[in-house]
Design a protein that fits this description.
- By secondary structure, the chain is mainly alpha-helical.
- The protein is 65% helix and 3% strand.
- It has a 3-stranded antiparallel β-sheet, with helices on one face.
- β1 and β2 form a beta hairpin.
């Protein structure tokens, strides 16, 4: 009892404001919990996605990333926005844009005008848009593209229009008016200038690959004739395959005729200028870009169309060679060229002129002709350096095409244009026109070397695809370094 009284007295004597004393205990061992978490991560499957990817996320990496949504919420006139998006897509396809560029433009425009629930389906010749807002009847619209034309200047203006819409500075009514103005505006160069550009390009290419002034003059005249013939065949609604074959046959027969008349020319070199003009360069680049970017149907259609044009060129050359053999044209000189007869600075000037002429032929915007020609010249200088270092004839054009593709993206974004507009004319000089002609001669006339002709034709096709792939690769390699070079970012910086 005395001990209990003493203990109670100690408790009463303790100060009432003292902090409670908590006895210190050992920290519990949680190592088994951590081990259980590690084991769960090892044996547990990948977590399923919570939701599908937002369509606007497709704009990442494009010049239209982070579009400005115009005030007012969802557009009450959704059908008008869909019709405008279809007209925009049709115009871009007609002017030669790739499927990815068309898709990103549609997504950017519809998002800027307040339509979020949009699905886009693009094939080779058609664009389908589906708008299915919540608790509303879905709306699906379709547009089929049935014609194409050379108008890189128009494609550049469409690119600039989309950029301004994404920035929020153009409403729908103004956008419709601007698009109609783009589609009705005359091309920058008159038709006679385009015809002359074809001839000058052919002459410059002949001098570039080792031909003489007389051969360049003959190629100049024959390519002007080819352009006039193509224009007439187009009026008669002749299919592209037969029109291309006829043009290739005319170029070949012209060179064979002068060779038959003992004119001192290299007929193979004279034909090359016309062959390069007929090659579907832009279509091949677009098809390769579509295949890489996940549009297999569109890519397949464009590749088939491009290969039919290539087959038309080959068929026209073969028919001309057979006709020449029947009428007694002497055996042609189809030996390999030793290169240009002029020093490197002169050859660089020839490449500059050739690229500028292709810009005119493709109806490029006047402000882009000089930068595109300079990029083509830079690609030629790199190509010459790579060849001097001993790189193979297949890899050298591809490497030059990669650099051209990178430079083209930088320059195009700085000047408010898509990369394709700059890249396609700048790579024209890389295509193996002489290899194509020499291979067809071996297949058609020289029966004992038909195997070599088939191999040569396969090599030429491989180089063409490598160049197209190099342009697309260069575009993708330059994307991380050009995010701040788009028109959208530049104009926002100016406003700040």
């Amino acid at each position: 009892m005395a001990r209990k009284t003493e203990s109670a007295a100690r408790v009463q004597a303790s100060p009432t404001d003292a902090l409670p004393i908590t006895p210190r205990s050992a920290r519990p061992d949680r190592s088994h919990v951590a081990a259980r978490k590690v084991l769960r991560r090892l044996v547990q499957g990948e977590a399923p996605p919570t939701q599908a990817m937002n369509l606007v996320e497709r704009l990442a990496g494009s010049p239209y990333a982070n579009p400005t949504i115009q005030a007012g919420g969802p557009d009450v006139g959704a059908r008008r926005t869909l019709d405008f998006a279809l007209s925009l897509a049709e115009t871009m396809f007609r002017y030669g844009a790739g499927a990815l560029e068309v898709e990103t433009s549609i997504i950017a425009v519809t998002a800027a005008f307040g339509l979020d629930n949009i699905e886009v389906d693009i094939t080779n010749q058609s664009v389908v848009l589906n708008y299915s807002a919540k608790d509303q009847t879905p709306t699906t619209v379709l547009r089929v593209v049935r014609s194409w034309t050379n108008n890189y200047a128009g494609l550049t203006r469409v690119h600039q229009l989309v950029t301004e819409i994404v920035e929020g500075g153009v409403d729908r009514a103004e956008a419709v008016r601007r698009l109609d103005e783009i589609t009705t505006k005359p091309k920058p160069f008159p038709r006679w200038m385009v015809t002359a550009a074809f001839g000058v390009f052919a002459a410059a290419i002949v001098l570039f690959i080792g031909g003489g002034p007389l051969g360049a003059l003959i190629s100049f005249g024959s390519c002007i004739g080819v352009d006039l013939l193509s224009r007439q065949l187009s009026r008669w609604r002749v299919p592209e395959f037969f029109a291309t074959a006829t043009s290739a046959a005319l170029v070949t027969l012209t060179a064979m005729l002068f060779w038959w008349l003992n004119v001192p020319i290299a007929p193979g070199l004279v034909v090359v200028g016309g062959i390069l003009l007929l090659l579907p360069t832009g279509r091949l680049v677009s098809a390769t870009q579509d295949a890489i970017n996940g549009f297999p149907v569109t890519a397949a259609g464009r590749f088939l169309s491009a290969f039919l044009v290539f087959a038309g060129i080959v068929s026209g050359i073969a028919v001309a060679l057979v006709i020449g053999n029947i009428i007694g044209v002497p055996e042609l000189d189809v030996t390999s060229s030793d290169g240009s007869l002029y020093p490197l600075p002169v050859v660089a000037v020839l490449v500059f002129i050739a690229v500028a002429m292709i810009c005119i032929a493709e109806q490029t915007d006047m402000g882009l002709v000089l930068p595109t020609s300079l990029i083509g010249t830079a690609g030629f200088l790199l190509y010459s350096l790579v060849v001097a270092l001993g790189v193979g004839y297949r890899l050298a054009p591809a490497l030059a095409a990669v650099v051209i593709g990178m430079l083209a993206r930088v320059v195009a974004l700085r000047m408010g244009a898509p990369q394709l507009v700059v890249a396609v004319p700048a790579v024209m000089f890389l295509y193996p026109g002489l290899t194509i002609f020499r291979s067809m001669y071996d297949l058609t006339i020289e029966g004992d070397v038909s195997g070599a002709g088939a191999i040569g034709l396969f090599n030429a096709l491989t180089i063409i695809l490598a160049i197209a792939g190099g342009v697309v690769l260069g575009d993708n390699l330059a994307r991380p370094f050009t995010r701040k070079l788009s028109s959208n970012e530049r104009r926002r910086n100016r406003r700040r």
